[in-house]
Amino acid sequence: MFHYQKTKSRHLLYACLLTVLTSTSFYATTSNICIDIQTKQIRLENEDSIRSFNNHYISKSKMDAFIQHQMDSLHMPGLSIAFVNDGKIAYHNALGVTNIDSKQKVDSKSIFDAASMSKTVFSFFTLKMIDDGLLNLDTPLYNYMEYPDIAYDPRYKLITARMVLSHTSGFPNWRFLDQQGNYNPNNKLTILFEPGTKFQYSGEGYEYLANVIAHLKGVKKNELQDIIKNEIFEPLHMNNSSFVWNDYIQKHRVDGHFNGKVNKGYSNSAKDPNFKASASLQTESKAYANFLIGIMNSKILSKKSFNELLKIQSISLATKKSKKRNYGLGIVIEESTYGLNYSHGGDNLSNTALYMFNQENKVGYVFFTNSENRNKFNKNLIDFLLKQ
């Protein structure tokens, strides 16, 4: 269809040019009509397509076919996906099933688990609190609130909001996991190195910071949801998004899957409903795309805070399982042939998600799936986007 529209557009242009050449008395009027026809035709073509990172256009029907093929081949039960072009949602789709046993359909109301993509939203919220004068990015959090969980180690008095959001606090990812990944609920919180000296991905740091902000606001940690709703979700049209479990989430949340079977994974649930700055956001692609538009269009935050959010703050060294990565505040920064890309993934075992956007070109996407196949799908998606 897209190629047909291009051909039709060319034929219209050729007809106009022929008219101009054979009727000089109406040159000015006819040429304006030609330009108007061509402009309208290009606009129609673009409205029926998605602009990619390399400025190529992909028809929505072609994207539909690609997504369906990927879901079938990768055995992804459900998917919620959105593309952003120039500050608007250019494409949105919610398809598949919420549960492979019940066969209930995914729709625009279906809610997915953002997992660690919660960190970007919470970082954005923290910077809003900093803009409001509640706290400072580089003041030790100890100055605002003592933390009994780590009071035995005086190094914690050095930890700042910047260190937490850039994963240089020295905390492990989670206290209940040892270096080998073994679970022990009785493990105490530790500091692995002098805060601020190197990178260590840490959910624990985000929870400490959330406790500090709740303390400064004079509310319980779960009540931060109400503040985030007023400050971030409502202004950016992140409808039905929540860090805390509620009745709407209970009704519309999809079920996770792992290895083709229903699996609860590590997601929030009615049994684990509480606010986790690092991992509990429940949302869907259209809402999260609106959040990305907020970043891309510099909404809510000050210019200074946006500069902090999107500049390199720390670097994770390459390992056998992952490549070297540059981190801003709750966001990954990567150079590409078409400019800087900003991204973050989420993985709670049976629910996975990922977003990527390019600030310079004003393009991006976000998707959620109730399966473990985020990485395979994202690799195939990027190949598809850049080869068109």
What does it look like?
The chain has 388 residues and is α+β, with helices and mostly antiparallel strands. It has helices at residues 2-22, 27-47, 60-74, 118-131, 161-165, 203-217, 224-233, 247-252, 285-296, 303-310, 374-387, and strands at 49-51, 57-59, 78-85, 88-96, 112-113, 257-258, 261-262, 282-283, 314-316, 325-327, 332-336, 339-347, 352-358, 363-369. Residues 1-10, 12-22 and 37-44 have low confidence and may be disordered. 36% of the residues lie in helices and 17% in strands. It is globular. The protein folds into two domains: 2-47; 57-387, DD-peptidase/beta-lactamase superfamily (Beta-lactamase), CATH 3.40.710. Strand 3 and strand 4 (88-96) form a beta hairpin.
Summarize this, please?
This protein is α+β, with helices and mostly antiparallel strands.
